[in-house]
Amino acid sequence: MMKKLIPTVCILALGIASPVFAAEKEEAKKVAKKQKPRIEVCFVLDTTGSMGGLIAGAKEKIWSMANEMISAKPTPEIRIGLIGYRDKTDAYVTKVYQLSNDIDDIYGKLMAFQAQGGGDTPESVNQALNEAVTKMEWSKSRDVLKVIFLVGDAPPHMDYKQDVKYPDSCKLAMKKDIIVNTIQCGSMGSTTP
């Protein structure tokens, strides 16, 4: 009788414990998801003609940086946005691609950027940076790392009266917990210390 009772008690105990273990496992998944780092990054790229000899390398570097973030451990939830910029008289001043977790789509858009236009040395850096801060659909959460990388070879037009100047955009970025980094391409005299 005792021999029959022990397996029955064990089976009963397993039946009761299984839902408890399943619930604990589900709770552990929720905790792991909560602890997963979240990153939002916007790459703002100068696509003017002066970037002609530099844009391929710039795009390669941008994608290398994106891949470093994507493959970080623990694996983050990541959204990437892009802004290509030129100048007022070009085919476009900015091309804005919203933050997205569709990495393949963002890669295609990045690779499609071509260096054309510009003409004068200063470019619409002010407008591009301001749009990165104000037009991207950034998370409101303080738990998300929010970063802008401004990549280019030319200084901003400070003579465009209607532009929000970069110091003001940087202050606004700070209020929104967005980190702004710059990456210089080339060695244009007006952009080097």
What does this structure look like?
With 193 residues, this protein is of the alpha/beta class. It has two domains: 1-35; 37-191, 3-Layer(aba) Sandwich (Rossmann fold). The chain has helices spanning 2-35, 55-70, 103-112, 125-134, 166-175, and strands at residues 38-46, 77-85, 94-100, 144-152, 178-184. The longest helix is centred in the N-terminal third of the chain and has 34 residues, at 2-35. It is globular. The model is unreliable at 7-14 (pLDDT under 50). Keywords: Secreted, Signal. It is found in: Secreted.
Summarize the structure.
Helices cover 41% and strands 21% of the residues. It has a 5-stranded mixed sheet with strand order 3-2-1-4-5, sandwiched between helices.
